[in-house]
Design a protein that fits this description.
There is one protein chain. With 137 residues, the protein is of the alpha+beta class. It has one domain. It is 16% helix and 31% strand. The protein contains two helices and eight strands; from the N terminus they run ββββββββαα. A four-stranded antiparallel β-sheet has the order 1-2-3-4, with no helix packed on it. Strands 5-6 form a two-stranded antiparallel ribbon. The chain is globular, with a radius of gyration of 15 Å. The chain binds zinc ion.
Length: 137
């Protein structure tokens, strides 16, 4: 199911989380490289860490830049410099990928950071469960 919100395609996957059947929407944002990244948002308006799947209490991890020095530009997504309290990723810093890198490099970077984080947490069932928030149904 795809829902339109603010002109951006959102895929509603309706993943169950705990007791409540929270919906997670996927917002597709274009990066400077042309890569379409997926930023997930819950029905409560909270965002999901693209590395570890934690629900962030901060601003979105990535947001669109629409102007530079007061001039309108072709919008592109960039890291918000927020830090995930669960995995410690600082968006746009720890997961930074140059726009000269090929399309797909951002997702690959998140995957790499996810593997490092998984090794660090070991077999914590609670933490691994939040990775469900990053699945596509
Ligand atoms: Zn995280």
């Amino acid at each position: 199911m795809v829902k339109k919100l603010e002109g951006i395609d959102l895929t509603v996957c309706g993943l169950p989380r705990g007791e409540d059947n929270m919906e997670i929407m996927i917002r597709k944002l274009a990066m400077k490289s042309g890569e379409q990244i997926e930023i997930r948002e819950t029905s409560d308006g909270e965002h999901v860490c693209p590395v570890c799947g934690a629900i962030l209490s901060s601003d979105p991890p990535y947001a669109l830049v629409t102007e530079v020095d007061g001039k309108q530009i072709e919008p592109f997504a960039t890291g918000s410099f927020e830090i995930c309290a669960t995995c410690g990723t600082e968006f746009g810093v720890d997961d930074y990928v140059s726009s000269k890198e090929p399309v797909g490099s951002q997702s690959k970077k998140w995957q790499e950071l996810r593997e490092i984080w998984k090794r660090k947490i070991g077999n914590s069932k609670e933490l691994l469960a939040q990775l469900k928030n990053l699945e596509t149904k």
